[in-house]
Fold:
Amino acid sequence: MTYAPYKLFALVQTAAEFGISAEAVLRGTGLVAAALADGKAICTVDQYLMACSNALRHCRDPRLPIQVGKSLHLSAYGLYGFALICSPTVRSGFEFAVRYHGLATPIFEIAWEIRDGYFVWTFPDEARVAYSRPQRTFLMIQQLAQHVTHVKDIARADRRPIDIKVALDPVEPGALFEQEFGCPVSFSAARTEITYEMSILDDRPPLTNPVTHAMLRESCEALIGRVPEKSGLAGQVSRIFMESAAPFPPMEMVAARLAMTPRTLRRRLTEEGASYSGLLDQVRNDLARQYLATDTFTVDDIAQLLGFADTANFRASFKRWNGQTPAGYRSRC
Structure:
């Protein structure tokens, strides 16, 4: 699966502060720094893991993964991040985070539980993922810094953990972690946990907006549900559409993000039995049907969300796709 390269961009930017060139970080990934900066690249988890291994060859300072994680605010995560920020409550935001975590270049699974009157984040697969010991240490330290940063982004108050337990061998200097995370941090634990006061679940995010959250949630549902069924180049193009707000990007922009010419993009899609306009229509139709299945949006709203010039054009397109009007479809949901 491919993702927007926000984590890779953060790693490259932070590594530069430690004297590591972008070329050194990206060696062997097939990516270049210029493409990351102008939004024309996509990446996989494997490419990110390779970049982390490259960075580790030049620097074992734990400050590097901490700073990478701290730089990854929720606003960097596209639809997924903005949906979290707009959540009605912190509790619903955390539920959303787990449900749609597959959209966020996942390195570890995430989960949370309520235990002994406290709210606890855990990482269920941390002992199963096949990372080398240096990789695991780097990635878990980054994950902890990301989590602490994300909680601060979504909570109204400056919430800090009560304590953090880490299932890693001790990392020096130990005092660095307590200073950076603002709480006691212990290593050699049975599993990694970040514990917060239970009351955090009742906070309201500063930018809470139920309408915006509902819209973004529907988009994320479509992105994580239907689009991954496609493979190859057609799947990559569909994912770019789903990660974009209307107006959707033209073929030239999509081709640039995939490091090819429009002509090559058109030819390769044809070889897969797909087309740019057909994929865009399918994404629009998937979103339209999901929006219509709720009572959140009017037909006029949906036309605007999907980038149609006017509602009449949307109605005509929807009838062409589905053989019925938007109103008729909604009445059967």
Q: What stands out?
A: The chain has a mean pLDDT of 88. Residues 29 and 50 are 7 Å apart (CA to CA). The longest strand covers residues 111-115. Residues 1-59 form one domain.
